[in-house]
Amino acid sequence: MLKEFKEFAVKGNVLDMAVGIILGVAFGTVVQSLVNDVIMPPVGLALGGVDFSEIAIPVGTGPEGEAVVIGIGLFINAIISFLIVAFAVFMLVRSFNRVKREEEAKEEATPEAPLEPTAEEKLLAEIRDLLKASAG
Q: Distance of CA 92 to CAs 89, 95, 101, 103, Å?
């Protein structure tokens, strides 16, 4: 069983998947920083400093006297953050796909140079030509 696990763990797809997950988590922190540190400050300024996090619906009092509320404002903030992250990722993927399409178009537009025949192919062509000449 240990041998089977070792074979499974060192297969290329498992390692590729692990690398993908690690890079995905790291990329997530980059995108979150982009949203929180670069995009949200101008958005907050444009909205006049509106903070939805304080919006809540009180539903009662807890057993120790604390207020129990439904945090609608926090949910709105999460939706806005998600939309900004989704848009940023969309723009990144869109740019990547555009560059990829341009590279593919360059490859298709570049005609491939005919390959130089090998020495064996040249010799066979000479034999063919000699046989044609002697038969005709």
A: 5, 5, 14, 17
